[in-house]
Amino acid sequence: NILLVAPTTPTERIRGIDAASSGFLYCVSTTGVTGEGGKRAGEDFLTRVRSAAACNPVLVGFGISTPGEAAAAAGPTDGVIIGSALLKRILAGESEPSLGRWVRAIRGALDHCSLRA
What we know:
By secondary structure, the chain is α/β, with parallel strands linked by helices. Helix content is 49%, strand content 10%. Strands 1-2-3-4 form a four-stranded parallel sheet, covered by helices on one side.
């Protein structure tokens, strides 16, 4: 079970969701709908989730589509999930080489981010 916590989830509930999850805890980075933007949660929320999660790694997703957004969202988490942005590119017919460049750019931003930590 991979369960989600949102910026509006109270800390005590985050602990319970973490205990009920297996694999990782999915941290929703926005208050909007995935792939549609929305108000981005601050690093204080990600830090609160990281502190409350004792059982699972914390991955952050929703609304992440650029290398800069991935690096900013990574913060105190264990990883970044990029789903809708990838699917949109595939469905739009983006070429394999172009997709590869995009993935490498995101990976590079995350690698650079982890070097600063």
